[in-house]
Amino acid sequence: MAILNDKFEILPDEFDPTVTNEMAIDRNVHTTSLTVTEPEVNEEFTGDKEAYMASVLARYQKTLVERTKYHLGYPFNLDFDYGALGQLQQFSINNYGDPFIESNYGVHSRPFEVGVLDWFARLWEIERNDYWGYITNGGTEGNLHGILVGREIFTDGVLYASCESHYSVFKAARMYRMVCEKVNTLISGEIDCVDLRQKLLANKDKPAILNVNIGTTVKGAVDDLDFVIKTLHECGFSNDRFYIHCDGALFGLMMPFIKHAPKVTFNKPIGSVSVSGHKFVGCPMPCGVQITRMEHIKVLSNNIEYQASRDATIMGNRNGHAPLFLWYTLSKKGYKGFQKEVQDCQINAHYLKDRLREAGISAMLNEISSTVVFERPKDEEFVRRWQLACEGAIAHVVVMPNVTIEKLNNFLKDLVEHRSVWYADGSQPPCIVTSVGTHNCICPAHK
Ligand SMILES: *Cc1c(COP(=O)(O)O)cnc(C)c1O
Fold first, then answer.
1. Which protein residues are within 6 Å of ligand 1, measured from CB?
2. Which atom of ligand 1 is nearest to the CA of 277?
């Protein structure tokens, strides 16, 4: 260790600020906090504090490298190099207010932001003059915005979302005090339109606001947008009586590059689409993109004299660095680059699913997805090491561009080795038939 000074709390070598060992919902756990200490009066002479801080950061970096190596469960592409943007860190870049209206604050990145938005507008097929959008802080803000737009258009609308929707959708419902109908899902994780029909018919007198999942968080399932629209029409909801927000946090940016996949496009009667920027694209900070129709935004915006702008975003001050990162990656990779990466993800996801099955492990992979669902590993330590996201008896790996065959092989080897120990006593691996169906569950009862 660089410095050992009893003035400071020394971190153990295995210190990992990302892990809390205790699970506590009802109180804050401080066991892993890094104390902020006041500078010493004579600090300028000794330089001790500076050296201490440098050592903390160096060790933190080491931890990040290690944790990046063993990450599989979250849909984040950890493979990027934004070195070229390092020079911009010294600026307080802030895209205050509306992307399309200059404010008086000049240190902004609006031209990059609008460039990125135009790219997404092309991807989702809406004319430049017909759309409005902005770069958000992530998929959650996109959902909060999309559902708010729907709510502002239909103040008495009922929100419909499948029960496998991201929790931010239900957060929006609570924030806006909306009546929310949770719709059942099929085994695949996609919305059950038979149940949707029943619920729509039960609320026929109220306009409908729908959240449609373009890739659910846990199973990567894509709601059948065309069937949802057909169901709305059949239930007597004309296009001016519903609003559809498409939550494409992860998959909204993968699906357009898959041949024969269903299409998300503003040529269909949808109101908005959102995507996360730090998921498939990869970005050091959370961010996202929200696109809606210009006509809707008029409902939402008030003119705010103070900022000489239009107030149609959720946040006021907005991260001006994020558009630079997105612009950089979109420019570097382009449609072709993304297409290749999506293909690789799909190939590797199928590889993982097939190897799991061969090893006798229940696993499911939705046709066009790269999210592999399988039995939850028995040991929480194992789950933590590989940073797997778990829900009930299932876990998943989201195959992103940084997840190579080599990494998957390491994971598979580790899992198979551990499993032979976990079940050496003759105990059985969990049955996950209720989550993945009979043809995907190969537990002893369903082999
Ligand atoms: C991740 C995710 C979100 C939330 O996105 P953030 O960028 O984490 O805010 C919303 N919906 C789905 C389906 C997601 O997977």
1. 138-140, 143, 166, 168, 213, 215-217, 247, 249-250, 276, 286, 288
2. 7
pLDDT tens across the length of the chain (447 residues) = 333 344 444 444 454 544 444 556 677 766 678 888 888 777 676 788 888 899 999 999 999 999 999 999 999 999 899 999 999 999 999 998 899 988 888 999 999 999 999 999 999 999 999 999 999 999 999 999 999 999 999 999 999 999 999 999 999 999 999 999 999 999 999 999 999 999 999 999 999 999 999 999 999 999 999 999 999 999 999 999 999 999 999 999 999 999 999 999 999 999 999 999 999 999 999 999 999 999 998 877 665 555 556 788 999 899 999 999 999 999 999 999 999 999 999 999 999 999 999 999 999 999 999 999 999 999 999 999 999 999 999 999 999 999 999 999 999 999 999 999 999 999 999 999 999 999 999 998 988
Distance 217 CA to ligand 1 centre (A): 7
Report helix, strand or coil for 275.
Answer: strand
- CA–CA gap between residue 11 and residue 32 (Å, rounded): 10
Q: Which residues does residue 247 pair with via DSSP β-bridges, in sequence order?
A: 213, 274
Sequence-distant (≥ 6) Cβ neighbours of residue 435 within 8 angstroms: 187, 364, 373, 392, 393, 394
Out of 167, 223, 250, mutate this one to test ligand 1's pocket (max ligand atoms within 8 Å of CB): namely 250
What are 324's two structure tokens? 């630079």
- C-alpha distances (whole Å) from 166 to each of 219, 231, 337, 349, 387 are 11, 22, 28, 22, 19
Cα 356 to ligand 1 centroid, rounded to whole Å: 26
Residue 418 amino acid letter: H
To test ligand 1's pocket by mutation, which of 211, 217, 314 has the most ligand atoms within 8 angstroms of CB?
A: 217
Closest atom of ligand 1 relative to the 140 alpha carbon: 9
Please answer whether residues 126 and 174 qualify as being in contact, where contact means their C-beta atoms are separated by less than 8 angstroms: no
What single DSSP character describes residue 191? B
Domain boundaries, the chain: 1-69, 80-447
Phi, psi dihedral angles at 410 (to 5 degrees)? -60, -45
Distance 172 CA to ligand 1 centre (A): 13
Cα separation, 262 vs 214, in Å, equals 10
Give the class (CATH, top level) of 80-447.
alpha beta
